[in-house]
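Example (one chain per record):
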Amino acid sequence: MSNHHSVHRVGCHVEDHPLIGRRDLLQIGGVSLLGMGLSDLLRLEAHAATTQEVRPGKAKAVVFIFQSGGPSQHETFDPKPEAPESIRGEYGVTSTRTPGEMFCEYLPKLSTRSNRFSIVRTMHHIAEREFRNEHNSCSYLLHTGSTSLPVGDTNASITQPRSGRISWPSIGSMIAYAAPTAPDVGLPAKIELPRASLMNYPGYDSGLLGPQYDRFGLDLAAKCNAKDSAGSCPNCFSHDDPNLDPERRPGPGPKAWWDNSSCRHPDFRLPDFGQTEGINVAQLENRAALLHRLDDLRRNLDQSERTTSLAAWDAHRKQAMRFILASRPGKYNPFDLTQESDRTRDLYGREEWGQGFLVARRLVEAGVRMVQINLRGWDTHQNAFRDLKGKLLPSIDHCLSGFLDDLSDRGMLDETLVVMCGEMGRTPRIYPIAEGGKNASGEVFTPGRHHWGDVFPCFFAGGGIQPGRIIGRTDSQGGLPITEAYTPEDLAATIFHCLGIGREREFQDSTGRPYRVYRGQPIQSLL
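Predicted structure:
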C-alpha cells in the first residue's frame, strides 16, 4: 500500500479509512459467488471481455455535461442579432476571443475563454420528424450516439421496458467496455451525478453490452423541493415561479409556491451506499452478516435461469465493494470536497453545478474514464428570458469557466475531453407555451421556445480538440444548418476517436453476434 502514496487513487490509503482493515477487506474480497471471487470479477472487468488493445488517445477521460431539456442555440452560442425580435429574442450579444464570433451577452466569462474550446453549431437529428423534437426519443439518440430509435419503438414506448428490443449501448457503456479503467482504479469506468435517481432518461443503459457495463449513478446533491425543478441549487427555480406575487415566491413562508430552505446550503454529501441494491455498507463491515446475505442472494439466483439477473447481481456486488471506502471522508476520497481549498471551491462556484464539476475533476484524477454531469432545467417553454438571464446562464457561465481554468492550471485539460450539449435545441421563433397560459399565481406566462431537433450546438474542449473554432453555420433564423451538419453518431465517434478507440473495434451481444463500436465519423474540423 505504501508505494501508492504518490498516486491519487481511491481506496489506496488505509489510514484514511480506519473502520475497515486491510485483512477484513481481503477476507471480504475472497468471498465467492458461484465459485468466483471478487478478485476474479475485477480482473475480468479490467479485461473488458476483449483482447483488443486500445490505441493511445490524447484524451484519458471524458466529462460529458448534459443540459437536460435542450438549451436554446439563440441564447447560448448561436445568437442572431440581425433577426426580427420574434427570432432574436430579448438578449444582446457579446464579442468572443474568436475573431468575428458572438455569444449571448449573458455568457461573458465563457466569451473571454473561447480560445480554450470550440463550438459545433450544426449538430442535428435526422430521425423522422415525430422523433427529432421530443425529449424521450432525442435523449435516446444523443446518449447512444444513434440516428434512429430501436425498431418498433415510438417516443412513448422508448421509456418503457419492451421484450425483444435491440437497444444500442450508451456512449458511457461503450467507453466502459472499449476503454476500461486501469486495474488499480477502484472505481467504475462511468459515473453519473449529481441526481442520478431523477435521470432515468432513455439511452442511459448498456443495451446490447449487458448490465455489467451500466452507468453507476450517484445522488450527491441536497434535496430540492422546486416544482418542475430546474437550475443549480441554491440558484434553482421552477418554471412556474410567480413573477409579481412576493408571498408566493420560493421560500419558507406559509404561502410560498415551494419551500426552498432545503437547498440554500447545497453542499454535496458523501455517497450513501447503505441503500445500494445487493450489499450495504454495514454488511460489508460485518463479514458474518455479509456471508449470510450472500447465501440468501445465491439461493435466490439459483431459482432463476435468467443470465441477466446473475450479471446484474455481479455488477452490484463489484460496485458495492469498490465504493466501500468512498463513503468515508478522507484526503483521497474524490467525493470529499472539504479537501479542496476555499479558493478552488469559489472558482467553481458554491452551487450544485460547480460542485458537480469539481467532483468530476477529482474523479478524473482518480482514474475514472467518463463522468456525466446532469444540468437540469433547460426546457424553457415559458418564462424563458426571465429564467435564462436570472438563473441558468449565470450558473453555467461561472461554473464551466472555473472548471476550464482549473483543468488548464493543473495541466489536465489536454488529457480531459469536455463535451456539453442538450438532447436538442429550441425553435427559431418565440411562442407562448399555451395561449393565455398562467402560472400558480394567475400570472400569464411570458413566452419561450419549444423543442427543435433540426439544429443544436455542442461544446468541445481539451482531450485532442483544436480550440478556438466555430464549426458549422445556421440560417438567418438559427433554425437549420446551411453548412455541413453532424449527427449524434458523429459526436460519439469523435469521443471514441479522442480516447483512442479505433473504428475497427467490435463487441458481441449475449448470443455472440458481433457489432462495430463506430457508427459515425469523427468531426474532423475539431481534430
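Caption: Residues 2-161+170-413+423-526 form one domain.
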